[in-house]
Amino acid sequence: MPAITQELPAPNRTKPLFDSNDVTVIFVLGGPGAGKGTQCANLVRDYGFKHLSAGDLLRAEQDREGSQFGDMIKEYIRDGKIVPMEVTVQLLENAMQDAIDNEGNKRFLIDGFPRKMDQALKFEEAVCLSKFTLFFDCPEDVMQERLLNRGKTSGRSDDNAESIKKRFKTFVETSMPVVKHYEKEGKVVIVDATPTPENVYEDVKKKFAEKGIEEKA
Ligand code: AMP
Q1: Could you tell me which residues belong to the region LID (predicted)?
Q2: Per residue in 191-205, pLDDT tens?
Q3: What pLDDT is attached to residue 13?
Q4: Which of 31, 32, 127, 152 has the fewest CB atoms below 10 angstroms from its CB?
Q5: Which of 95, 94, 92, 58 is closest to 78 using CA atoms?
Q6: In degrees rounded to 5, what are phi and psi of residue 15?
Q7: Residue 16 falls inside a structural domain
Q8: With contact defined as beta carbons under 8 Å apart, do 84 and 115 qualify?
């Protein structure tokens, strides 16, 4: 896992680091427990995307020995709050550069990002323009049941009733405006995330085909 540079905030650029004609970025959003990770794993298997989860990158940085951001990230995650965007954007940029250099993969699913408008604007200004946002739409009662179930085995500090409540609040107040922003630009693909994982994935595949995104041979 690449470490983040000590330089913060992420450098200002006059144009994005990666050209969106060359590098594909699909943002994946949905409430906590909507099934983003499950569906991303399917897409990696069948389409060959590189999956980058903002939450996973933050958890890895939190646990990295010597990280100057570890304690801060821990507190934000436990409270279901949005970690400051400089850290998240820089982690994503580093992970993308790493995948391009070492795996030659230029197609990214960026999961759990952008969760706040400032991240969306900063990322598209400094790193890469997105192709579209895949949004998993799911009612809170369904997500809550899934998260409490996952909490029995996940070992995650935020899969408990108190943290879940805070995460829902953050999602509605801070992340939904990002979905609305991209919806206005006609750049959101909405999938109903209530059915079984298999049925949700069928819908995802259908919508990717409509967007001209093909499965790998
Ligand atoms: P997740 O693994 O996607 O459920 O995210 C778990 C937690 O990590 C969130 O509740 C936030 O505290 C933090 N987090 C995840 N993604 C982001 C992001 N894009 N920006 C800031 N914080 C994030």
Answers
A1: 149-159
A2: 999 999 999 999 999
A3: 82
A4: 152
A5: 58
A6: -145, 160
A7: no
A8: no
74 found inside a domain: yes
Ligand 1 neighbourhood includes 32 CB (under 6 angstroms):
yes
Q: How confident is the model at residue 4 (pLDDT cuts 50, 70, 90)?
A: low
| Strand partners of residue 111 | 28, 53
Annotated binding site for a ribonucleoside 5'-phosphate: which residue ranges? Answer: 59, 81-83, 112-115, 119, 156, 167
- Give yes or no for residue 112 CB within 6 A of ligand 1: yes
Whether residue 33 has its Cβ less than 6 Å from ligand 1: no
> With 0-12 CB in 10 A as exposed, 13-18 as middle and 19+ as buried, what is 29?
buried
- 147 in contact with ligand 1, CB cutoff 6 A: no
Number of domains in the chain: 1
Q: Quickly tell me which residue has 């913060």 as its tokens.
A: 8
Domain that holds residue 64: 2-10+24-209
Return the CATH number at 179. Answer: 3.40.50.300
Mean residue pLDDT of the chain comes to 94
Mutate which of 63, 83, 89, 119 for ligand 1 pocket (most atoms within 8 A of beta carbon): 83
Domain membership flag for residue 88: yes
